[in-house]
Amino acid sequence: MKLILLGPPGAGKGTQAAMLVERFGIPQISTGDMLRTAVRDQTDMGKKAKAFMDAGGLVPDEVVVGIVRERLQNADCDSGFILDGFPRTVPQADALKQSLSALGKDLDAVVSLQVDTEALVERLTGRRSCGGCGKGYHIKFDPPVQDGICDSCSAVLIQRDDDQEATIRNRMDVYHEQTAPLEDYYRQDNLLRSVDGMADIGAGQDQMLRTLQGD
Fold it and tell me: Which candidate in 50, 88, 97, 169 is catalytic?
C-alpha cells in the first residue's frame, strides 16, 4: 500500500498514519524525519540539505525530492509507505511522480482528511498539556477536575504557542493556498479519496480502511 496523507494541521494525520503502519506493516515517512535522517547519515542529498540548513535557508524542492527518493529506495518501503507532509505543492507532486516512475512505484491512493475550519480551531485552541508530567487535556472535551490544574500531578496546564487562534488560522490559510490544490491534481489521476477528519478516532479509522479497500 503506497499512500499520501493530505490534511491541514490538527486533522488527525498522525493518528491515522499510526493505525495504517500497524495494519499494513509499512513505514510512515515525514519530511522532517527524512531530512534529519539524511543529514545524520550524510547521504549525498543530506549533505546538500545541511548546507542550506546551516545557512538558515529553506531546503529547495529538488533537494527535498532527492531525499524522498533516497528514502523510498530503502528495503522497508518495498511493501509500501505512507508519505505524511509531502508533497506540499503541485511542483513537488510533479517531481514526486517522476521519481516514483523512475523507481517503478505507483501510488495506490491519496487520502485527504476533510475538516471544518471553525471546528478545527475549537479543537486545537482548546488543547492543554501539563507542564509537569505532560498529560494532555482539552478545556471542552476532556477538561481537568480543577480548571488549569493537572489531575495527576497538580502542575499548571499550559497552551502551546502554535495552538493560539491566530497561529492556527494562519497555518490553515497557508495550507489552503499551497496544499489544497493538490486535491485537484490527484483527482485528475483518479487517486484522491476523502475521509472525515472531524470524526472520532474509531469512526475515522473505520472510514479510512473502508475507503482504501474500496467499500
Answer: 88
How far apart, in whole angstroms, are the C-alpha atoms of residue 120 and residue 210?
Answer: 24
Q: Domains of the chain by range and CATH?
A: 2-26+79-116+167-212 (3.40.50.300)
Could you list the pLDDT tens digit for every one of the 215 residues in the chain? 999 999 888 888 888 999 999 999 999 988 777 788 888 888 888 888 888 878 777 678 888 888 888 889 999 999 999 998 889 889 999 999 999 999 999 999 999 999 888 988 998 999 999 999 999 999 998 999 999 999 999 999 999 888 999 988 988 888 888 888 999 999 999 999 999 988 888 898 999 999 988 75
Name the catalytic one among 13, 48, 123, 128.
13
Closest CA to 111 of 1, 33, 203: 1
Q: Which of 50, 135, 171, 187 is catalytic?
A: 171
